[in-house]
Design a protein that fits this description.
By secondary structure, this protein is an alpha/beta fold. The chain contains 15 helices and 14 strands. It is globular and about 60 Å long.
């Protein structure tokens, strides 16, 4: 039996329209004179987020690192919310490869505390302290369960950074999920950052790739770092063609993923209220707290896989479920039923024993 894959929206496969576009894509050498299909994708990407230019990269992690290198110089400091993807899941690239230091800023559901951010700049200017060079935001916020930064919060972070002479980068891997959730266009979100990157290989279902967007001068410099990091590709139009289809046809349907995520969370909450706050689900990520079971998350992953549902463990006491275009109402029902069976085997008997 093929398991229902709820580990991530990165497991999505290209649509038939994408496959057809890939087959007939006009190609060139992206690392030399340029690939025409890649250039078309870059122009479309920049337009979508209201920036002057864009560069195509293999991954979001490389796009973030490329942006950090472009904005900063070695020995300077980057300010980020303390659970940001850049410092939690990108293998310390900013420090090991960029020679950058980072300072985590306390936040709530991925949103940095504005006062703490402002104070970080003031202390950074003191004697024997590093001067902050860049502020990074993330929306939707992965570790915070797909939470969305408000436009008001982003505007305030941008204001604080600019008042201290720093630029702002937005890790917008799922920026179109944020746009759908806010009912705002992606360019309205990206307006509060000097640069933004996003993935076409997550909920948009393209097979590979991310776009880094900014001013013409920024992107010209970013291309230098892309080459240094090994991201300059050749006949990349084959995959860029799928990215074009993704941006033209796959954004509006993200609302379906959000609806299915809410249904999934509601189903889990009906099993036990401690598992998830269904009202907190904003996009397509559902974090489930199984601490009350007393059973390690990795064991839950094994149990659920045996029940035909593939998920991810986050720490000892949390699971992550991510909806995408391969998940519909039937799969949501099956996932809820599977978790119910595991919960009844492991959580309820323990609760009765304690009682």
């Amino acid at each position: 039996m093929t398991p229902i894959d709820l580990r991530s929206d990165t497991v999505t496969h290209p649509t038939e329209a994408m496959r057809e576009a890939m087959q007939r894509a006009e190609l060139g050498d992206d690392g030399r004179e340029g690939d025409p299909t890649v250039r078309k994708l870059e122009q479309l990407a920049a337009q979508k987020v209201g920036k002057q230019a864009a560069v195509f990269l293999p991954s979001g992690t490389m796009a973030n690192l490329c942006s950090l290198l472009t904005h900063t110089s070695r020995g300077t400091e980057v300010l980020l919310e303390r659970t940001a993807h850049i410092i939690s899941y990108e293998n310390s690239g900013l420090s090991l490869l960029g020679g950058l230091f980072y300072r985590p800023i306390m936040g709530t559901r991925g949103a940095m505390d504005a006062t703490a951010l402002d104070l970080a700049f003031e202390s950074g200017l003191a004697s024997k302290r590093l001067a902050p060079a860049l502020v990074c935001m993330e929306t939707t916020h992965n570790t915070a369960g797909g939470s969305v930064l408000s436009l008001q919060h982003m505007a305030e972070v941008h204001r604080i950074a600019k008042s201290h002479g720093a630029n702002v980068h937005l890790d917008g891997a799922r920026i179109f999920n944020a746009a759908v959730a806010l009912g705002a266009s992606a360019d309205k979100i990206a307006a509060h950052a000097d640069s933004v990157c996003f993935c076409v290989s997550k909920g948009l279902s393209a097979p590979v790739g991310s776009l880094l967007c900014g001013t013409h001068a920024f992107i010209d410099r970013a291309r230098h770092f892309r080459r240094m990091l090994g991201g300059a590709m050749r006949q990349a139009g084959i995959v860029a063609a799928a990215g074009i289809v993704a941006l033209e046809t796959m954004i509006e349907r993200l609302s379906e993923d959000h609806e299915n995520a809410r249904a999934l969370a509601q189903g889990f909450a009906q099993i036990d209220a401690s598992l998830v706050d269904a009202k907190a689900i904003e996009t397509n990520i559902v974090r489930v707290d199984i601490a009350a079971s007393g059973r390690a998350a990795r064991l839950w992953v094994e149990d659920l896989l045996a029940e035909g549902v593939w998920t991810s463990d986050y720490g000892r006491s949390q699971l992550r479920f991510v909806t995408h275009r391969h998940i519909a109402a039937a799969e949501v029902e099956q996932a809820v039923a599977a978790l119910r069976r595991v919960w009844e085997r492991h959580a309820r008997p323990r609760a009765r024993a304690v009682g």
